[in-house]
Write a structure and sequence with these properties.
It is globular, with a radius of gyration of 26 Å. The chain has three domains: 2-94, no CATH class; 116-203, PDZ domain (Pdz3 Domain, Roll), CATH 2.30.42.10; 205-410, 2-enoyl-CoA Hydratase, Chain A, domain 1 (Alpha-Beta Complex). By secondary structure, it is of the alpha+beta class. 34% of the residues lie in helices and 23% in strands. A hairpin with a 2-residue loop joins strand 5 (154-158) and strand 6.
């Protein structure tokens, strides 16, 4: 309310002086602008004070109140000074996911979540303990992915500018640029550093891709890969599942590997397409308020399901994985996930800039907090020791996919035998004999 009142007063003042022919002095203009800058700073402060969830339990409101006094007591001659002050203020939170974005950056983020990306195709985070700039995951089909950039790679420099003590916003500015230009990243992986020169591109990403794989036994497997949980993902997934159901697939392999996440609502809607009833996810706010999201009784398929995950499966990917696992809807195959169990809200500020603020943490249906710990799959499988081609992902040359398909075939066969069981049949004992090399069935 204070913010709105201030802008109304300034608007009336400018309007009156314009019509009366009175010129506003440079001093008055400077005062109005400085007040505007401070309003943006205070707007950020108020959002954090009211909504910020501190996952480490170190946030103290008394300290935050003192910080407000310090930052509003200073003078700011332009927006850049105010924006730097905001970033400096937020650094006291020790939370890499609560960050300020200037109007251009904020607009780009909204474009990103709408299904378009500009840049090289990576999502990054600042590790608050080591201060390293870390890649969450490259997005499939982007220059970074094609160059072999991996989850957990560290960026040491950008175009020969060291990332030591660099804010994540400054790093993003250096990485992004005009389409067709190049950016040189110095990468640290397993103790070894090397350079990668990547072309910047504007890419419209199709979130969901799919195909049908036929097993040696003649079973049709629906392979579905989600690259990112953007605004289009749920609709694309719905169309994909309907198409595969018509084609009579026997089961599904859902590939969430190297999926850095995206929109919370998208992950919930996609989970509901597989889970008819039961808890999908629960979110816990700073005030201890718990909101539970459940299946809505409109799942699109009940067929057997395997989910592929790895170190680059983060955030929304972990919500879907946790929902599938805890509801016994399917099994997870691959490597432990990234471990980002925090929810951010995007807020528009008074001058068109924005703030992503951590407002809640999410728990899997069983109440597990996976932040920093990740989700350990039911069947741990390493990826191929030698890199495979992009066209080989989701084929039997893909070790993790191969293991997932093998497990899925077991489940399909078991379900088929159970559905064929007739209790009154004279052949009951024969039914429960060993039917193949993998199963021994019992009455227990």
């Amino acid at each position: 309310m204070k913010i709105k009142k201030l802008f109304k007063k300034q608007f009336v003042f400018l309007l009156v002086t314009t019509f009366s022919g009175i010129l506003i002095s440079d001093y008055t203009k400077a005062t109005i602008l400085e007040n505007n800058y401070k309003e943006v700073i205070d707007h950020v402060w108020q959002i954090v004070y009211r909504d910020f969830l501190d996952s480490d339990g170190k946030f103290k409101k008394s300290n935050w109140i003192n910080i407000r006094k310090d930052f509003l007591a200073k003078k700011y001659s332009n927006s850049n000074e105010a924006y730097d002050a905001i970033r400096n203020m937020l650094s006291n939170l020790d939370d890499p996911y609560t960050r300020f974005l200037d109007p251009k950056e904020f607009n780009q983020m909204r474009i990103d979540t709408s299904g378009e990306l500009t840049g090289v195709g990576i999502q990054i985070v600042k590790d608050k303990e080591s201060d390293d700039l870390i890649i969450i995951s490259p997005i499939e089909g982007t220059p970074a992915y094609d160059a072999g950039i991996k989850s957990k790679d560290k960026i040491l420099s950008i175009d020969n500018v060291s990332t030591k003590d660099m804010d994540i916003e400054d790093a993003v500015k250096l990485i992004r640029g005009p389409k067709g230009t190049k950016v040189k990243l110095e990468i640290l992986r397993n103790g070894n550093s090397f350079f990668e020169s990547l072309s910047r591109e504007k890419i419209e990403i199709k979130s969901v891709t799919s195909k049908i794989n036929e097993t040696k036994e003649g079973l049709l497997i629906g392979y579905v890969r989600i690259k990112q949980f953007n605004a289009n993902a749920s609709r694309e997934m719905k169309d994909t599942l309907k198409d595969l159901e018509v084609k009579k697939v026997s089961g599904y392999i859902l590939d969430l590997r190297s999926n850095p996440g995206g929109l919370l609502e998208s992950s919930i809607e996609i989970s509901r397409q597989f889970i008819d009833k039961g808890i999908i996810v629960s979110t816990l706010s700073k005030n201890g308020l718990r909101e539970i999201k459940r299946g809505n009784g409109r799942a699109l398929t009940k067929k057997p399901l395997i989910v592929l995950v790895n170190e680059g499966s983060a955030s929304a990917s972990e919500i879907v994985s946790g929902a599938i696992r805890d509801n016994n809807r399917g099994k997870l195959v691959g490597k432990k996930t990234f471990g980002k169990g925090l929810v951010q809200s995007m807020r528009t500020l008074v001058d068109g800039s924005g703030l992503t603020v951590t407002v809640a943490k999410y728990l899997t249906p069983n109440g597990t907090d996976i932040n920093k710990f990740g989700i350990t799959p039911d069947i741990e499988v390493k990826m191929n020791s030698n890199p495979i081609l992009q066209k080989e992902i989701g084929t039997r040359r893909d070790r993790q996919y191969r293991s997932g398909e093998k497990e899925l075939i077991k489940i399909i066969k078991r379900n088929k035998l159970v559905s064929q069981f007739e209790p009154r049949s004279a052949n009951v004992l024969a039914f429960f004999k060993k039917r193949d090399n993998n199963f021994v069935y019992s009455l227990n």
